[in-house]
Every structure is written in structure tokens, then in C-alpha cells.
Amino acid sequence: MENNWYTQAEVAKKLGVSKATVYHYAKEGKIKKIPDPHRIHRNVRYETSEVDELAKMREEQPKGRKPSELAKELGMSVQSILKHIRTGTIVAKEVPFGDERISYIFSDEQYIEAKKKLTPKISKRIRKTEYYNADFDIALFQLFRTSGGEEARVTKEEDAWGFYLVKQQTWVPFQSGISDYQLSKRYPIHQDLMDPKGYVHFEIPFKEETLLYPFIDYLYEVWGVENVRLREKDETVYIYIKSGNRPFNHEILSFTKLLQFVIEGHIYLEDGLLVTESTYTKTSLELPKSMHERVKKEANAVDLTYSQWVEKVIKEHLANNQHDKYKL
């Protein structure tokens, strides 16, 4: 006589999931566990009708790769992947999952594109001289005002530092801005140096000026140039913020809008603080002195930090290794 039940191992195989997932399915009521109060049967049993129905539903669903696969491959949390899907950073297809629940899957093309977008990029280091002039004690895009209330922002014309007068739409050299227009700073730009715990990376287009410039003003005044890095590109500004936390006024800045411009790391609000967390973990290496010096030279030759160069070499090695346990 054919059994009207499956063991946990049989359910896992039929549904293509782990035994732990089978346990959670039963706990959530997706499949029925057959009571066995006297422990007559050696294995936990599940009703075949419930399991077969769930297996049929899964077969009818569109095929694709799960957010959990991408999360595992990139070393991210599933919640982070889902956040990127919901904010539109990456694209996936919605699929029904149980009663009134939605899950997501990636086609092969969507998976490749999502991986490309979310894989941390090794960028050349941003030097402080790119965004801060120690002689003048000014920072790139810092806000100044004239005695008459006209706004001006610090900019560079090639290697010359000066001011862009917003109302007049003209640029003047630094000394001229101070002496002729009597420009003055609207806020201090220095704060205590935070411990090095990595950075959160933003990339904000110039066209988002109603967010970009207030965000820069906030960072300079609240975080300080010691804890922020900026690089001006043709159409965007790269902004790196040290991992940590500082007060945040959501009435002045839109936290929700900021989220879409995070390209590496995590940010969230907690008790009136903007909390930034890097995706990197600080570690240390013990190397022979001769190798240490060689790494420094190799890194400098390609304008990378010591850590960036080591990461680049390790990634290249793992990517070229054919054993699954070493693949990225």
C-alpha cells in the first residue's frame, strides 16, 4: 500500500529545499506535519497532499535565480538585495509566495546585471587635496555668502581654487572672492577624526542639486572634512563617508532619497542619528618585510591603497580558481 506521507528528507528533495526549510514550512502552515505523540515512527512525517500541492505551485512559478543566491555570492544580506530590488537599483520579477506574499526571481540577464551593479568597485583612492585646500582652509562645494546674502560655492577651475557666485553665474578666484565680494563661511568644516572602519560610498548626479549641495553642507558641518572624501566627476560627485554615526535632521534632508544613491555600504536612521556601515571588515596581515615593501610599491604604481591592491589580487586569484569553494 502506498504511503500517504513523506519523510522530511523526501519533502526536501521533492521541493528542492533544505531540511531546515521543510521545518519552517511546517511551522508556517504551508505543509501539514502528521502528529506522532507516541513516537512510533522514526522519521517526522508530512501529508503527501500538502507537499504535492506546494510542489505543483513551485513548478508553475517562473524559473529563475533567487535573491538569496545573489546575496550569498556577493557576501550581502538577503534584506539588502531585497532593498535594492524595491528601490529599483536592480531589476527582478515579482512572483507570488504563499498567501498575500511576494517573492522575487532573476532571469539570467537580470542576475548578471544585478551582480555587476552591486559588486563593490575598487576605485582609485581619493586624495585629500582633491576636495580640501589646506592653505585657504576651504573644501570643494563648501557654501559661502557675501555680506549682501548672495550664495557662493567653492569650486576649482583646473588647479585654481575659487568661488562660483550663484546669482551672478560667474566664477572668481579665491582672493577676489574674499577681498572684492567679502565672502564668508556659513559653517565650520572640521570635526574630530573618527576611527577608520571603512567607508560608505555615494554617487550623486549634479542634476540632483537640491539634494547634493544640502547633503554636502551637512557632511562638512556635522561630519567634518576629516571624515568625508569627495571627488568631482563630469556628471556626478563621489562622496565617501566614514563608518560611524552623527546627528541627522530629516526635515532638512530626505533620508529616503539618499538611499537610492548609496553604491556601497549601508545607512539607516537610529534615535536621530545617521548610521553608516561599511561592507568591509578590517583585518591584518603578517608578511615578510621584503614582501610588505613590494606590495606598497605595487599599490603605489597603480594608485591604489595597500588594502585595495591586496583585495584586487585576491579577487583575481579567486575568480581564476576553478574550485567551487573558492569562487566569488
Entry summary:
With 328 residues, this protein is an alpha+beta fold.
- In round numbers, the mean pLDDT is 85
Number of strands: 18
Structural class: alpha+beta
CATH topology of the largest domain: Phenol Hydroxylase P2 Protein
Tell me the number of helical segments per DSSP (H or I, 4 or more residues long): 12
Helix content: 25-40%
Please give the alpha-carbon distance between the first and last residues. 48 Å
Principal-axis shape: elongated
Text of the CATH class of the largest domain: Alpha Beta
What is the string of helix and strand elements? Answer: EHHEHHHEEHHEEEEEEHEEHEEEHEEEHH
pLDDT under 50 segments (min length 5)?
A: 324-328
CATH architecture of the largest domain: Alpha-Beta Complex
Q: Major β-sheet, in short?
A: 5 strands, antiparallel
Tell me the strand order in the biggest sheet: 10-9-8-7-11
Radius of gyration: 27 Å
Which band does the percent of strand residues land in?
15-25%
Task: State the domain count.
Answer: 5
